[in-house]
Specification:
Helix 2 (25-65) runs antiparallel to helix 4. This protein has four helices and six strands, in the order H-E-E-H-H-H-E-E-E-E. The strands form two sheets. A four-stranded antiparallel β-sheet has the order 3-4-5-6. It is elongated. 37% of the residues lie in helices and 22% in strands. It has one domain. It is α+β, with helices and mostly antiparallel strands and 178 residues long. A hairpin with a 5-residue loop joins strand 4 and strand 5. The longest helix is centred in the first third of the chain and has 41 residues, at 25-65.
Amino acid sequence: MSCVAFIAFFKIGKEGIKMREAIGSTWLTGIIITFIAIFAGFLAFSISYTKAFRVKNQILNIIVQKEGYTSSKNNLRNVTESQLKDDNSTEAEIFKYIKALGYNYAMFDNKTNPCKEGKLKEGGYCVVRYVSNTGAVNYKVTTYVSLSIPVLGISLNIPISGETKTVYYDNSNCDCDA
């Protein structure tokens, strides 16, 4: 630091070196709280994004392993753990995974359907089945990152989509055709 800068910020007097202008502690505290809030918001968003991305990938893996998407005959929100364990449908397997991971599947009610195409499933995700002319079947899965800031009145649902590779032996019974 040069002497000119040192003299500009400090005053040398009989009492010793004093700062000419100091940032008030209230302003400094406000700035620190703002940066902590921004950092905490970014951290919460990145955790939610990672969780939604992980759920989407696992849903795609389960659909490929089960060779299609089969719907459950039960209302998955109202079943017991033993009923959920006995259900061998693809939808029940996905719901078990979503519950175990802690994905926020209750963010959508029956009035709010963010799916551009297809139907919102019980775990807060969308599945669409595409059948080509050759009989090849692909599935598109969309999960959502829900971002809401009630103080500012902001509520966003950011979609995260992915598709399966071609499923040749499709044994699905879902209402998820495009």
